Structure formats: C-alpha cells, structure tokens
Amino acid sequence: QVQLQQWGAGLLKSSETLSLTCGVYGDSFSGFYWTWIRQPPGKGLEWVGQIDQWGSTRYNPSLKSRLTISIDTSKNQFSLILTSLTAADTAVYYCARGPPDGFDPWGQGTLVTVSS
Amino acid sequence: DIQMTQSPPTLSASVGDTVTITCRASQSISTWLAWYQQKPGKAPNVLIYKVSTLESGVPSRFSGSASGTEFALTISSLQPDDFATYYCQQYNTYPYTFGQGTKLEIK
C-alpha cells in the first residue's frame, strides 16, 4: 500500500522561498503523475501542479512563474519550490498521487504560513 | 480555466436521509470527474473517480452520475461518519480545478 510522507519548513516570511518534499513509500513512480495541491485556511482546494516519472511537468498558470516541481526517482521523492512568497500563499500544501483514478493517496499536509 | 460550480454550499440532513450534491462544469470534461470527502484537519479522500467508479473500500451508499456537463454525488442512507465537506474535481483539462465544496451538516 503506497504511502506519501511530506516535509518542509512551515513558517516563512514574505519574499522567501518555500521548499517541500514528498516521499513515496511502498510503490515506484512508474505509471503515475505526482501532484501538489494547496488549501488556504478555511477555503477550497487549488491544484498547484504535477510531474511524471520522466520529469515532465504541468503547472497552474497562476503560479507558473514562481513554481518548480522536480522528481528524484532514485530516492522516490518529488519536490515543490515556490519563490517570492506572499501572504496569499499561506495554505496547507498536500502532495498526492494521480490522476487518472482521481488523487489518491494524499500526504498528511504541511501548513505553510507566510508572515510579513 | 474550467469552472466547477458546486451546489449547495451547505446541506443539512439527518442520519438515514438520501442527499445529492451537484457540480456543473463550464465546458466538457468527458468523464474525468472525481469526488472527495474531507474531514476537519485531514487530507481529502477520493470517493469516486471517472464520474461513477467507486474507490476501493468506499461504501456502496456513495454513487456518482452525469448528464452532459452536470455531475452528481448521491449519498444514500446517511451515516454519522458521512458528515463532512465534499468536493468535485475535473481532471480533463489543465489546470485541474475543484468545486467550491459542500459542507454536509447534521440537521
């Protein structure tokens, strides 16, 4: 049974860079997309972007200029880097596997707070 | 971006009731539609994908359907564990987008 475990700094200041990593345990990267999703406190879900096993990425256009998603198949990990943070980036960030069968499973989530 | 208009935002119901949550896509998404359940402080869990395919382990009282660009999640015989927030999501066209959510509350 595949499990996702994520880690990274949760308290950052405006203009700093967010770095999160998601480890995949119990399965390989083959045949799946690997995704980041975020959820501002008390609000809905926003798809951030995805990467496949070959390193091909798709980003949300609203974040594209600040976003990099990368993959390390040797470590079964994928990562998110988001630069030039503002308060609007404050959210719980989730990693997840998928599609095509929806997004499943999900990581435990990381609350990222951006302060001024 | 494809807009997913989900309704109602809040739904009050009792244990044993049958409820339906709907989601309308602003354009065709074929059958690339999933439903998620989220409880406070937890990550969402997929219930249904490809409109009507039930995720393994999800009770059969959950079902999904579609008519054109309108999609529905029906929960039959509500159980106490079903009171949560539900989201639809299209994954036909980038950027993938979610509905605004429906909070299912106990009446």
Verbal overview:
The complex is a heterodimer of chains A (116) and B (107). Chain A is an all-beta fold and 116 residues long. Helices cover 0% and strands 51% of the residues of chain A. Chain A is built from no helices and 10 strands. Chain A is globular, with a radius of gyration of 13 Å. The mean pLDDT of chain A is 95. Chain B has 107 residues and is an all-beta fold. In chain B, the strands form 2 sheets. In chain B, strands 2, 4, 5, 6, 9, 10 and 11 form a 7-stranded mixed beta sheet that branches. Chain B has a 4-stranded antiparallel beta sheet with strand order 1-3-8-7, with no helix packed on it. Chain A binds chain B through residues 44-47, 58-62, 94, 96, 98-104, 106-109, and chain B through 32, 34, 36, 43-46, 48-50, 53, 55, 87, 89, 91, 94-101.
Number of strands of chain A: 10
Quaternary state of the chains: heterodimer
Please give the share of residues in helix of chain A.
under 10%
Structural class by SSE content of chain B: mainly beta
Order of helices and strands of chain B: EEEEEEEEEEE
> Helix/strand/pairing class of chain A, anyone?
mainly beta
What number is the mean pLDDT of chain A? 95
Range of helix content of chain B? under 10%
Largest sheet of chain A: 6 strands, mixed
- Measured between the Cα atoms of the first and last residue of chain A, the distance is 41 Å
Q: On the 0-100 scale, what is the average pLDDT of chain B?
A: 97
Number of helices of chain B: 0
Summarize the structure.
The complex is a heterodimer of chains A (116) and B (107). With 116 residues, chain A is an all-beta fold.
Topology (elements, then pairings):
The complex is a heterodimer of chains A (116) and B (107).
Chain A: E1 3-8, E2 11-13, E3 18-25, E4 33-39, E5 46-52, E6 57-59, E7 67-72, E8 77-82, E9 91-97, E10 110-115
Parallel strand pairs in A: 2-10
Antiparallel strand pairs in A: 1-3, 3-8, 4-5, 4-9, 5-6, 7-8, 9-10
Chain B: E1 4-7, E2 10-13, E3 19-25, E4 33-38, E5 45-49, E6 53-54, E7 62-67, E8 70-75, E9 85-90, E10 97-98, E11 102-106
Parallel strand pairs in B: 2-11
Antiparallel strand pairs in B: 1-3, 3-8, 4-5, 4-9, 5-6, 7-8, 9-10, 9-11
